[in-house]
Amino acid sequence: MFFIYVLVFCIGLIWGSFANVIVSRLGIKEGIVGGRSECPKCLAKLHWYDLFPIFSYLELRGKCRYCSETISARYPLLESLTGLVFLGNFIKSWPSLDINFIFSLIVSFLLLLIIFFDWEYFIIPDKISIPLSLSLIIFNFVFKSTDFFNLLLTGILSALFFGIIFLVSNGRWMGFGDAKLALVIGLSLGYPLAFWSLLVSVWIAAIVGVLMIIAGKANMKTAMPFGSFMAGVAIIFLIFANEIETKIKFINWIF
Question: Bridge-partner residues for 45, per DSSP?
């Protein structure tokens, strides 16, 4: 099994490299599949040996081979996290690698894209959130018919809640993209997991914000990529859904 785990992690690294391409190119003229990878500073075309996930970054010591410009740590970080997400989904699903495993893997991967895109650009791209929402509605209707209305209603109410906050604050507290992401999370997790996922992400974002203010790295007007927190917590809930749901039932039983 160890060899299989390593193989799955390496497959995740490769997809993480592709994820970096998407985050870097989504929305630009050349598109995702057009053109070769290049250094954003010196525009030198990168060769295959410059693009090995993680290893090229370590071999180059985080600098461009051609101009010595520092390479963003986002590249190895996203590659590593994608490998871990692939491995986590595999371990939690094994040996039943069924349609639910594929579902969790795809949604987790797209949520990873949202984490880094929102963190870097403070935008949750509609090119990801809208197609994902529509795909989730179709998937839930076909493969999760018994839970379909729970998932659909949870998604709508989650989006409505964050949409109201967006309207009341005139976009100052959060963007409308957060409401679309809440729809995705609700459609993916359903009640009560989606509720707890969103609640935990709010608390984590608040704690990080307070710590940044205390450290002098931010103030009350500093923008926070809240979508990154929402997507990150949602991935954890997706992978460990059964364990978390058991703990939620235990908490409800106590109270």
Answer: 38
Q: Which of 240, 162, 164, 149 is nearest to 202 (CA)?
A: 162
User: Rounded to two decimals, what is the model's pTM?
Assistant: 0.90
Query: Considering Cα of 125, then 206, then 221, then 182, what sign does the dihedral take?
Result: positive
Helices (H), 122-175: 126-143, 148-168
Contact call for residues 9 and 84 (beta carbons, < 8 A)? yes
Angle, CA 179 vertex, CA 164 and CA 191 arms, to 5°: 95
Q: Is the peptide bond before 125 cis (omega within 30 degrees of 0)?
A: no
Q: Of how many residues is the chain composed?
A: 255
Give the CA distances from residue 55 to residues 40, 71, 80, 116, in Å, rounded to whole numbers and listed in that order: 20, 13, 11, 20
Running DSSP on this structure, what letter comes out for residue 233?
H
Per the listing, tokens 């109410």 go with 157
Per residue in 221-253, pLDDT tens? 778 899 999 999 999 999 999 889 887 776 666
* DSSP codes joined into one string, 15-42: HHHHHHHHHHHTTSTTTTTSS--B-TTT
Instruction: List CB contacts of 224: < 8 A, sequence separation 6 or more.
Output: 205, 208, 209, 218
Per-position b or e across 95-113, b if 16+ CB within 10 A of its CB: eeeeeeeebbbebbbbbbb
